[in-house]
Amino acid sequence: MFASDSQLSDLELIDIAIKQLHSIYGATDLKECVSCKMRLQVGKFLALTRSDLVPSVYTRWCKEEGFDESLCQTKFGYPSVEYGALGLEFTKMVQLVNPEGLDGDLYCYYHDQDCHVMPELPSIRMAKLWPPRPKLYEAPKPQGETFNVLHLSDISLQLDYTLLAESNCSQALCCAPRSSNKVHPPPDYDYSSIYDPQFGLSFYDSSYASGHFQKGPYVDQFKTFTPTWLPSHEFGAYGCDTSELMLNNTLQIIRDFHENHLNFEFGIFTGGMVDHADSIHVSRKDVLDSQFRGYRDMLHYLENFPIYSAMGTRDSFPPNQLPTKSLTTQFNYQWQFDFISDLWHESKWIDLDAAKQVRYNQVGYSIITKRGLKIISLNSNVWNTENLYSFIDTLNFDPFGIWQFLIDELIESEINEQRVWIIAHLPPSKHSLPVPTKIFTKIIERFSPKVIAAIFFGYNGKDQFNLIYGGDGQVKDLSNLINYALIGPSVSPLNGNNPAWRYYSVDTETFDVVNSFTYITKLNNTFVNEGAEPVWEYQYSAREAYDPESLWPMERPLDMEFWHHAGEKIRDIPHINKMFNSFEYRQSPYDPYYYLNFQVTEPTTDELILQNDNYCKVTSFSVLNRKECMLTDDQDAYKEPRYLRTFIPLIRPNQSPEYLLLSGPPSTKETESIVYQQRQNPNFDQEEAKQSDVKAKHNRRKSLRDKLHKAHQRVKSEMRKRSFGMELDDV
Predict the structure, then answer these.
(1) Alpha-carbon gap, residue 411 to 97, rounded angstroms
(2) GO molecular function of the protein, one example (predicted)?
(3) Which end of the chain, N or C, is less surrounded by CB atoms within 10 Å?
């Protein structure tokens, strides 16, 4: 590939490699996925000969192709403790992957914006990994007595949260000193005019310095030098992660509920302590400080009961990364497992044996509560599509050792007649690799319902649940149902969520969830409450919400059949579907039904799309399940979205905020000021604009249908040509 490379200087070698990458990327006769895999071949050859040059080559190529400079630096740049560059991880990956095999296919599908062909996956047989399942394998019967368990998720503590910073910014995370919007507000724009003047805007420099709320002095928003669309308030904003003020308030409220009447025996935290800032702004120190201060605050307020935690995908440095045990790179990550092991053990949340598992096992740990329930915590970066190490040797059944660990723990519990909860951060239904997801599903199927009592995730930020069906997950009836998973709501308000937490009423003998109770605070109320603390309110009980007629027996827990019927109601009953969306966003103004403003009796087309999407969301345990669920005559090329749905607040002076629901990459934020200025134009014809909007919407939908049809034809063509026929036979 590089002739006489031993005689070439470093600069000459770099130039040749970059020219090859440009040539491959610019070729018009190559299919998208083929182009990506050929670029991996270039990287593999270079990594095997001069691995030290890979970051330089790919960073420069990326910039010269016109991609964002900071993105190129974080994705391919040399490692640094100052920001999360992945040059080392990328180099190790291209060195060890098979570009022409399943490794390359999966990497290109998830990491190349032009490759949309999901490869054919190997079949998996695991029968020899465990003893035969007994014919009688029913869950034990509940005894009627209960205790309470707290569930927290996705705190995402933003240490650089700044009062009056831009909360409607053009970056991934707002409310930081660096936050800005590419489009500046017009000169006459006044944020305060959108609210009723009788309510004072809340911009107070308050604190919990003494462990109790202290209202600080008012800060004048007009004294800031940079105009902002949405200046951040002290307790938080919807485009940002959790301020330390909001975290203290949340934990204080939970402590008060615990001491007054709830009396939690323990809590689970399904990960997510580090914020969602762009990797270029995340340093090793940030990761350590976020976890230290977040868990410190948790221990301060909730000192009377243990918290069992899972590692979040971003609770590592660089974010989302976890090497397999066979790689020498693993030692570069040991410091973070030493840190978190010591932190949890010194907080007296886990015992010495569990601390050793966290430190040396790294993919998970188990602990037994005082009542005898085993909690197994898994490191979900194993199946995270953002973890570059997960694309190495994808035909290997268990390169991280996580599945053997989980199986051994479950077999031990089966022998001891012990029930188990599984907790992890990332649910397999989001940004997860398909092969590990299939393995996980088969393990759950083998040990349910007798051993596995419940499964809990976080990550999504939304209040959701997943049903787990056997086989390929496409037969969604009771006879094929094997278990369910609950996805906890986030404390963080990022992406339009109101902060929330919940607790479970749990049977004392079977450890089944008998009921679920969710509490929320409406963050937008804190924008105009003159600096007072947020008001937390009870939102709903799962039993009452999904069984409004009280047909479900009171003595029966909320088992998988209960959630199966809840999924059917979301599919079939429009107001239950709307209620589900309200639960997801916790009654925030970013609920899509606020935007669609449904007032009609019969569901509209948009309503039916949301309704079907919600049903597929709750009945799909994997991304592939959801993809198959969404296949319809007019939407037969569904793939996992590459961008999160972006909510852009459109502010109009002297009126209440109007929220626009936009889909697409973050660059759509640049349209906001244009729309704003158009509507302020005295010659702006509202009716003409409305007709224009309808016509534009029709054209966009037609264009999208055409693109989907063409994409589907490409997929079918590619799949006909592919026939891997590979199996992971009885490993």
Answers:
(1) 33
(2) phosphoric diester hydrolase activity
(3) N
